[in-house]
Amino acid sequence: MNTLMKPAMVCAAFIALAMSPAARTADMSAVVTIDLPGETAELKPGPGREAALANCMICHSVDYIYMQPPQTRDQWKASVVKMQKTFGAPIKDEDIDAIVGYLMSQNGKQ
Amino acid sequence: MQTKDVFSPANAGPDASRRKFLGAGASLGGLALLGQAPLASAMQKMIELPMVNGSRGLAAYPQKRELIVMTARPVQLETPMAVFNEGVFTPNDAFFVRWHLANMPTSIDAATFRIKVHGLVKQPLELSVADLRNNYEQVEIAAVCQCAGNSRGLFNPRVPGGQWSNGAMGNALWKGVRLRDILNKAGIQVGAVQVRLNGADGPVLPTTPDFVKALDMDIALQEDVIVAYAMNGEPLPLLNGYPVRLVVPGWYATYWVKMLDDIEVIGKVDENFWMKPAYRIPDNPCGCVEPGQKGMAMVPINRMTVRSFITSVADGAKVKGGRLQEVKGIAFDGGYGIARVLFTTNGGKTWAETRLGKDYGKYSFREWSFAFRPRPGRRYELACLAISNNGESQRFAPRWNPSGYMRNVVEPVRVTAV
Known about the structure:
Chain A is mainly alpha-helical. Chain A is 40% helix and 3% strand.
């Protein structure tokens, strides 16, 4: 799950299952398999992008970053530290400033 | 390009796909619909939610119709408001989706799926879906499932987290068996304090806390808390927790654990991350504080606040004047049932009683309607206000809390009659 899924056009989303008899049947003991569409959001160019690329996409897509209201440097730092300390992301202490700087360049508030 | 349109009988054209597309945007309140140029729409349909950084793609995920994509991994999908105008029950293929951890199964064999019941019980159990269907009393209940952070993106000041508009909710007819019947079959031991509930989803990294929730015994043993294997008469969509999920009517969806495969009776209050500090509200009657306030006591989020929405017309819409217009909507609360829904056409100067629809039980959406005759050329500020059977009403001043929970403010819908 920690490999980046290939971006795909959203209109190519798999809907085969919705059409299949298995999903439609009232039988509640069926095997159901889905194929999730790929991610479309990407980290845009900016200072520190390498550090963000190496860390921010291990557990989640980057729409998590761009949907947030613009955050101050302190708020972004709190988020990065939360990822490291609470969620156990393998973020090196020396990379935190670079990641925070990148997040400020992407969605920062002074 | 910006269009403002309305999902209403007066404006809906004969073309179904166009109607659906407008519906998605109209639901979000007179929003800009992007990507309507042929080239752009071939790439990705977009809509704009009424918040800074509110651009979202629209996509049809497996077993789902076109919904608003908040995040791709873990997947979180929002239901457009127009869906709630289709009927009192939210179709399974339009029901919102919210996963916490990306390592969720994308294939489930319901024949081999087992729910472990263990901990402070006399006889541990391993239940199949067939066991649930064959060996327990079957119950069915209409109940609203709403994310604790529904409408978080509308908070002011904004707070970080999932930036939902109003569509992280849905109402379904859930069928399954009582959690208490399962617990009683296993036999609850002396010293039981809570029931811990875990699903088949897990974290990407072993260092990330697994998503686990806990209910006090008195809640877990209530007769309407069920382990559900059917939703609106069909199996649950995988993205909504196939093959079974917990249903805790009246309580926020954070407790409605999906792909439920582990029920553990424990002898102390659970303090895993997802119970503490996550999903907590200020310990006071409104669950709110002044923005920036810190150091208050916090308690686990629980019962939902009373809410109502106009579903038939969107903010910024044009309506046909000179004839009777029926405005429709929904209301719900944390399990007392809806007593009244009031309606205003003049920004709250005067309120009138709406007509309530069929009662599907105290945990369900309750439809309401109100007819008024707009005069061409005039602007109207519409709003609805629900009051529950225990006397709780929606707020006029939005509550604020640091996690963006429990929004239930009265929201205006401005329309112009033409």
